[in-house]
Structures are given as C-alpha cells and as structure tokens.
Specification:
With about 325 residues, the protein is mainly beta. The protein folds into 2 domains: about 150 residues, Cupredoxins -  blue copper proteins (Immunoglobulin-like, Sandwich); about 140 residues, Immunoglobulin-like. The protein is about 5% helix and about 45% strand. The protein has 4 helices and 22 strands. It has a 6-stranded mixed sheet with strand order 13-12-15-20-17-18. Strands 3, 4, 5, 7 and 9 form a 5-stranded mixed sheet that branches. A 5-stranded mixed sheet has the order 14-22-21-16-19. The longest helix is centred in the middle third of the chain and has 6 residues. It is globular and about 55 Å long.
C-alpha cells in the first residue's frame, strides 16, 4: 500500500500520514481510497512563543487538527476515536463531504468509543472540518477544527504553485470554559494555526513564512471562526488569484482583500516580484492586532519546510 502524506506536524516536525493513521489505496478509475483516523483528545497545547499552555480540545493533540489532502473523486474512510482520558463527547463534520447529517455527523464518541463513516470528495476546494458536539461553539473555540484540501482532478485547472501553506484563522478565549463569552463575541485573540503571532518575527517564538522571490505562493485558507469574518489582505502586495472555496472554477483576479466567513475557505495566490516582507493579515484590525498576522518573507534562499503546510504546529511545550 502506498502511504499518503498527512500534512500534520508534531513538535514542529512533519509526520507521515501513515503514522497518523491515514493510508491510501488504489481506487477505481484512478481514484484512491484514504483511511483517515483521528483521535479526539482533551489535552494541553502551547499557544504562544512564551510557552503558555492552554487546555484545548483537539484532533490528534494539535490545534488546528492535521491537514488532510486528497484528490477530487477520492474516497475517504474516516474513523473518529474518543481518547480514553476524555471527559466530554466529540464528533466530526467534514464540509468536503455530502452525507446524512443524523447518521454521520450527529453521532458523538465518548471516551473509548469509535465512529466511522465514508464519503467521496466530489468537489475540489479547501474545506473546513470541525467537531459538532454540543455546545458546538465551545468545541470549535477550544481547538476542534482543521482543513481538508481536495485537489482538482485536472492538475492543469490552475497554475502550479511553487510554495504552499495552510492558514486556519480562529478566535481564542483564554478561559476555555467561558461559553457565554463565546456567545457574546468577547474573544481575547484572533490567531493563525493555533498560535498568537505565530508567524510574526517581532514576537517571542514567532517565525515568518519564507518564500523565494518570483515564486507563486499559494495559501489555502480556512476561517474556523466560530464567529468572526476574516478580510484577508497581503500588505504591500495584491492577490494575483483568489479561488472561492479553493475551487479553480471560482477564479477571481487582482484582489486587494477578500472576505471569508466563518466555516468557509478560499485559496489565495500571490507572486512576489521583489525581496522583502509582506504581512498577510485579516484587515479586521481588532483581529490582526491581537494575533492574526503572518509575515511572508521573500528572499533568494528561503527555508525548506520539507512538506510542512503549517510550520511550527504546535510549538514545543
């Protein structure tokens, strides 16, 4: 069996999908079958460069959960396991799937339980996934979310990217038990990939995303919310292409800022012609100035991320 890459990270190091419980097998007419296994885990994670720990609810012990990547037409056999130490039930909702809600998404797993379902990724794009257990706003806010990329079956449907990253935006509450504050939109930070200023080099532990001058940089973006819209903007640049929901058929060109609502996504292409720093922000400044800034640095010898789409996820505890 051919192992399929799950673009996850543990302690900052990329791991193979097979090691995280996802294996790919040949399917019909060139399509593949992917065995994807997630464990719902209630655990502590690190949320800033100072080592601050947070009692998160996660998939596979990280926030966001692992990036799943398949191709249009592929089949995903999904298994959700409830960690034996969990105190709460959890579930899974893939926005890339078209399924019976009550049979598949409404089912929760408590400690030690398992739930399985299968779907075909019929449409290309970058899609949100999340826990749907009640209260869903808390399960999402505490870290049970991530991205699944469904690449187009026709690789020529859009230009080939030289560099790819995944950014998942979310709101962060320092008190994970204050559900009323989540309903009242009283969040403390807005963050990318589970970290406060994770990709801003002016903050402790922050590192930029490095690219080569002239590269077509592709950012697969998901807004996990749970409440706020994102207005994604590249400071000192312009998006060459924006693909709504990450679908190549939805191609917009030459955009300064693009709005992505909670639970949605888009794919952004940017070609940087000159060396320098290009911060990617939500232009909802109350979010950007409280953590949602990712600085892209263009130079001639960028860092090799060795396949990582979400570098430094998570920080070392």
């Amino acid at each position: 069996m051919q192992r399929f890459r799950l673009l996850a990270s543990t302690l900052g190091l990329a791991v193979l999908l097979g090691a995280s419980g996802c294996i790919t097998m040949p399917g019909s007419a060139g399509a593949k079958v992917h065995e994807v296994t997630f464990t719902a885990m209630e655990t502590e994670i690190v949320v800033d460069g100072n080592g601050t720990k947070y009692k998160a609810w996660t998939f596979n012990g990280q926030m966001p959960g692992p990036v799943v990547r398949v191709t249009e037409g592929d089949t995903v056999n999904f298994t959700l396991i409830g960690d034996k130490n969990n105190s709460f039930p959890h579930s899974m909702d893939f926005h890339a799937a078209e399924l019976d809600f009550l049979k598949n998404y409404h089912k929760t797993v408590s400690a030690g339980e398992t739930h399985k379902f299968t779907f075909v990724a019929k449409k290309p794009g970058v899609f949100f996934y999340h826990c749907g257990a009640s209260p869903m706003i808390q399960h999402v806010a505490r870290g049970m979310f991530g991205a699944i990329i469904v690449d187009p079956k026709d690789a020529n449907a859009w230009p080939k990217a030289d560099r790819e990253f995944v950014l998942v935006q979310s709101e962060f509450w320092k008190n994970p038990d204050n559900v009323q504050a989540m309903f009242d939109r009283k969040w403390d930070n807005t963050i990318f990939n589970g970290g406060i200023f994770k990709y801003h080099p002016f903050f402790p532990g922050g590192e930029p995303l490095e690219v080569k001058v002239g590269d077509r940089v592709r950012i697969h973006f998901v807004n996990a919310g749970p409440n706020e819209f994102s207005a994604l903007h590249p400071i000192a640049e312009i998006w060459d292409n924006v693909y709504e929901s990450g679908n190549p058929a939805n191609n917009l060109k030459g955009l300064q800022t693009y709005v992505v609502g909670p639970g949605s996504g888009a794919t952004f292409d940017m070609i940087v012609d000159n060396p320098g720093a290009y911060p990617v922000v939500t232009h909802s400044l109350t979010g950007a100035l409280r953590g949602a800034i990712a600085v892209v640095i263009a130079n001639q010898n960028p860092k090799d991320y060795k396949g990582q789409l979400m570098p430094l996820t998570p920080w070392n505890p």
